[in-house]
Amino acid sequence: xxxxxxxxxxxxxxxxxxxxxxxxxxxxxxxxxxxxxxxxxxxxxxxxxxxxxxxxxxxxxxxxxxxxxxxxxxxxxxxxxxxxxxxxxxxxxxxxxxxxxxxxxxxxxxxxxxxxxxxxxxxxxxxxxxxxxxxxxxxxxxxxxxxxxxxxxxxxxxxxxxxxxxxxxxxxxxxxxxxxxxxxxxxxxxxxxxxxxxxxxxxxxxxxxxxxxxxxxxxxxxxxxxxxxxxxxxxxxxxxxxxxxxxxxxxxxxxxxxxxxxxxxxxxxxxxxxxxxxxxxxxxxxxxxxxxxxxxxxxxxxxxxxxxxxxxxxxxxxxxxxxxxxxxxxxxxxxxxxxxxxxxxxxxxxxxxxxxxxxxxxxxxxxxxxxxxxxxxxxxxxxxxxxxxxxxxxxxxxxxxxxxxxxxxxxxxxxxxxxxxxxxxxxxxxxxxxxxxxxxxxxxxxxxxxxxxxxxxxxxxxxxxxxxxxxxxxxxxxxxxxxxxxxxxxxxxxxxxxxxxxxxxxxxxxxxxxxxxxxxxxxxxxxxxxxxxxxxxxxxxxxxxxxxxxxxxxxxxxxxxxxxxxxxxxxxxxxxxxxxxxxxxxxxxxxxxxxxxxxxxxxxxxxxxxxxxxxxxxxxxxxxxxxxxxxxxxxxxxxxxxxxxxxxxxxxxxxxxxxxxxxxxxxxxxxxxxxx
Length: 676
Fold this sequence. Notes:
Helix content is 36%, strand content 24%. The protein is built from 13 helices and 27 strands. 32% of the residues are buried. It is α+β, with helices and mostly antiparallel strands. β21 and β22 form a beta hairpin.
């Protein structure tokens, strides 16, 4: 229970910090704004001398305060039927529709009003945070260096000489200049034991101008109903190892006690009011090694259970850290545990003995009956299952004519019928897969298995399909009429994937190979291929992007046509510059009569020509990020001194690493030509 309670408090710490961060940001914006907002209504101001514009205060069951004796209390409760006694919980009137502004002693109304106007819009933020926190926070406050304190919900219950600037929590946040938890202390308004989570406020010059706080009752997340038993002598304490005096370093400082822990009539903990701080510093100490271990565990924020004496009585000590300075400590006499355990043990022992006698005969009878039923059921099930199993083995061995000869009307009969229906479908799918495998093998054989060796250039190329058959295409064709230093290359990408794309790619390859290498002008070749492919694609809607080039490695020239494909990329290592071969051109298979334009590029030794399909730069990572053309350029830049084929392999390797196991969405093809 102690560990669970501490865990809940630590989880709620995240909610507290998020809420406080929002309030802090809004407060700093308002306090540093150039123009002060106008007040929508007169502010509710309280001070030691007077109260201005007090709204109608209502009674909320979650807001109580501890009664204090004195003339002020008698005057406040003069209409009550029975005057409260010291320590009683009485109602504390609040207003959830307003903020109250407390003027500390020495702060005048005129001095405070400019700041009141600035922070008045915080009301809406406080109300929104209050609806989120529900009853997890008692007050939301903003305290400024001049002594003004804004509180939500509004109330008028501060002591007359209350000045938040001299409080330990305010001094600590001003010193640390960061969000801090402070040890529980009595709240000045309710006098109940409360934590305080505070965060500093800064102006535009990063100067400290105040603090914003959440006031959180200690008992808010510690339900007394979890651990209370009127017959148990339980001690529930909040302890700390933070001392101002090192003379108590071997002891535990009692920060608060749950004063209502043993009261059956008051087990409902209202906003933590049963937790009270000792009137004088009080410590827990036992003179034995186990206690030293407990102190060390709490200091190191470790939870645990120990058995040792508490004030001379054997007890169990359960403790669990709440944060870096506090721990919840529960001490209960061992006798309270053993009495219930002994009673439970006797009851369980008697119940078990009685039940063993009564159930032995029943169990034996049930076992005998189930054995007989199981024998007949197994006989009725094993034969049909055996028939289906034998049919499955035959299909696994390649016998597509195997069938399960079972005609019953039960689930096994339905299973046999589904099996018999499945076998022909498996046979058909197997045939399709076999055909796809043959098509894939044939298509792979259509692509160049090796790159050509030409003088004056180094060539590398590779294609990776996204499916069994793909739509990417690349080729190298020697020029019979132009000499051994001249060759043609082409790279293309058919729209779509799979069988249809592969068939169109195969047809386009045949057309390109039939027309290229005969000394014909490049424009004539591409135009003829376009006319043929357009005729083939007339009813399918497919098309093909294409980049064709005739490379003269002796004269370092490239004649090229770009038909809707990604531009070719020329890299010059000497200047570390990239040039794109942008020339316009419509994709193949769209317009039968489209006129293509041939382009000419003069290269020089050392330059690298790169041709690739969009599957390379469009490859996605698990986060949805594209590989990008910029990464392609970076790979070429970093590997320009390597052989062409190694550059190609490096591009494919980094694309695969970018995908991190995701399947390819499109075919990936790269051609690298290094002019020597």
